[in-house]
Amino acid sequence: MQQAGGPDIIGSRAYVPGYTLDRGISVDRAGALVDAHDNASGSRVVIRLLSPALTADTAYRRQVRHDMAVLTVLRHQHLLSVIEFDDKHAAIVYEFVESITLRHLIDVSGALAAPAALVVFDDSLAALDALNAAGVIHRDVTPNAVLLDTDGTGILRDAGVPAPPLRRGWRSGTPQYMAPELWSSRPHTVATDLYAATGVLVESLTGRPPYLGTDFHGLGVQHTQGALPSEAVPLLARDLVIRGLAKDPRDRPPSAASFRRDVETAGVAFLGANWRDQGRAWLAVAVVDRLADPVPAAPMVEIADDDDESPLVGVAIDTAADEVRPGGVGWKVWSIAAAAVIALVVMIIFAVQALGEIGRASC
User: Fold this and answer.
1) What secondary structure letter does DSSP report for 143?
2) Distance between CA atoms of residues 268 and 185, nearest Å
3) Which residues does 121 contact at the CB level (< 8 Å), separation at least 6?
4) Among 30, 65, 119, 300, which residue's beta carbon has the most beta carbons within 10 A?
5) Confidence of residue 98 (pLDDT cuts 50, 70, 90)
6) Is 71 helix (H, G, I), strand (E, B) or coil?
7) Strand partners, 94
């Protein structure tokens, strides 16, 4: 039957016309990623099933329609291509690329070598430049949104697909990478994308996000008032971090293209003219080594309510930082709603996996 604002479910199976869903890849607050294939051509694709927490928002539905109309025709070497957007079934069909996420590489291998981290940052900025030139804001640059292919190339995915806000009145996004202005509900801009990408650079170089918090309030204070983590990164990246993580968006670079010029200057000055070749060679080896690793779904973590000792289970957040606990009026309602959404998506994924196993067993 049709779920309002979400994917079709036939029995317990997610359904996207024209495609067979083979197995679940991962689950996050924005929905689920599913390995699938095109029934007509047999080609492998990846499908993003959007979370009802996103699609129930009519303003978001209008925005995603606009963004996907652009992305289905936009092609760039550092952007994961959108093949199709199925508005009715709340599904985005992406090209398949043999790759791993930056999140997986950091989790398994720790901090990246400096040339590799700089290459990933530069590739992400190139993708953001293409998006911004086309009138699209990414809205949620995180290590999970960066793919690394076997050539050591960074590819940005999930443009226009932010994690739903964790509290009423907040902007969408992942708290560990949210610019100061988003914490006061100001809109996403080019500057907020640059801030998030710089936060990912910090994590690539150190193995940790720019700020670590034990609760949302503390994390928000660090983003809005905390000292810049420039001393935590190697010298070659300090000026980049100071500019990219500036509290005032007007103090950040005016565009991704201009920021890339700063990256080039730093790369040549500290690593030599062939810094990109160095970085890609390091990444290519690391990606090939890691492709055999199992990649688990996004973890489901317990988040305890400040006013209630019993934990709310099922809200998925980026766990690169220390545990993040909510606080404030209305949290429980939103947490329970988010948990219900994630539980639904998890059931979809497990159903797809089970049906895939049944189909393979019958062959």
Assistant:
1) G
2) 38
3) 197, 198, 200, 201, 204, 240, 263
4) 119
5) very high
6) helix
7) 46, 82
